[in-house]
From TrEMBL:
Designated name of the protein: ABC transporter permease
Taxonomy, superkingdom: Bacteria
Residue stretches spanning the membrane: 12-35, 80-104, 124-151, 197-222, 242-268
A Pfam family the protein falls into: BPD_transp_1
Keyword annotations from UniProtKB, A to Z: Cell membrane, Membrane, Transmembrane, Transmembrane helix, Transport
Record-linked InterPro entries: BP-dependent_transpt_permease, MetI-like, MetI-like_sf
GO biological processes: transmembrane transport
């Protein structure tokens, strides 16, 4: 009976997490149409209104009289867009380099392994700040930083699984039949390792959200007039004692989104990789 209740509880938790993430994604996608105000629209006569204090501002206003709900919707949109773009780009780069290392070995394998070890050994925030110092604080640069943050995991995973394919012999046999290397990679090897890559992407996504939040909180991430969850949190830290909602509202969204994605990632891992149970 306890096992059944526990299984039902886990199922409900996964369902709730998936629904919450769906709500956040839809809120971000529809932000330009459902946000009641422009994110930079100021009303100095309505500064620091508490949530539900005014029917015109459900989540209150900030220090400049800007609507917190509108800024939150657009911040979710930008933060999730950056996280998705960084996750996908990191997966593409890491998977490609991992396959190259497995296929050609030798110097290529050594170079990829050296890059993986370098990325893993260096505190990433230092590497991120170094990249920003040279390239500036642009949205494209932030996406590149996010890709650099996650590429080594995909490279290591792809290299090991692709090497297994060549060790087992079926990939080498296909090459012996004259099938191009890229076709072997996309048609035969990639489908066999896709489940592991998907699991890695779902587990890596919360880290992308937290990375963007950290950089923007420090003032080196998303810059005004754009708004992200990290910038809202950064601006709200100066008003925690007088206007707590400016920082707490985006903070709650950050916690719920990363927690929900972690729960969903664990569920995907259990379904796609039964050995991890």
């Amino acid at each position: 009976m306890n096992t059944r209740i526990s299984a039902a509880g886990r199922s409900g938790l996964v369902t709730a997490s998936a629904l919450l993430l769906l709500v956040f994604f839809l809120a971000g996608v529809l932000a330009p149409w459902i946000a009641p105000y422009d994110i930079e629209a100021m009303d100095l006569t309505g500064r620091l209104l508490m949530p539900f204090e005014s029917s015109a501002h459900w989540l209150g206003t900030d220090e400049l009289g800007r609507d917190v709900l509108s800024r939150l919707l657009h911040s979710i949109r930008l933060s999730f867009l950056l996280a998705v773009a960084g996750t996908v780009l990191g997966a593409v780069i890491g998977t490609t380099l991992g396959f190259i290392a497995a296929r050609f070995g030798g110097l290529a394998d050594d170079a990829v392994n050296a890059g993986v070890d370098f990325t893993a050994s260096l505190p990433f925030i230092i590497l991120a700040l170094t990249i920003i110092a040279f390239l500036g604080t642009d949205v494209t640069v932030i996406i590149v930083i996010m890709a650099v943050y996650g590429w080594d995991r995909y490279a290591r995973l792809t290299r090991n699984l692709a090497r297994s394919a060549y060790t087992e012999g079926y990939a080498s046999a296909l090459e012996g039949l004259g099938i191009p290397t890229m076709r072997i990679a996309f048609r035969h090897i990639l489908p066999n390792i896709a489940s592991a890559l998907v699991v890695n992407m779902t587990l890596n996504f919360p880290g992308m959200i937290l990375l963007e939040t950290s950089l923007s909180f420090l003032g080196v991430g998303v810059q005004p007039p754009m708004s992200s969850l990290g910038t809202m949190l950064g601006f709200g830290r100066d008003y925690l004692t007088t206007a707590w909602w400016i920082a707490v509202v985006p903070g709650v969204v950050i916690v719920l989104s990363t927690l929900s994605m972690s729960i969903l990632g664990d569920y995907v891992q259990q379904k796609l990789e039964p050995a991890s149970r």
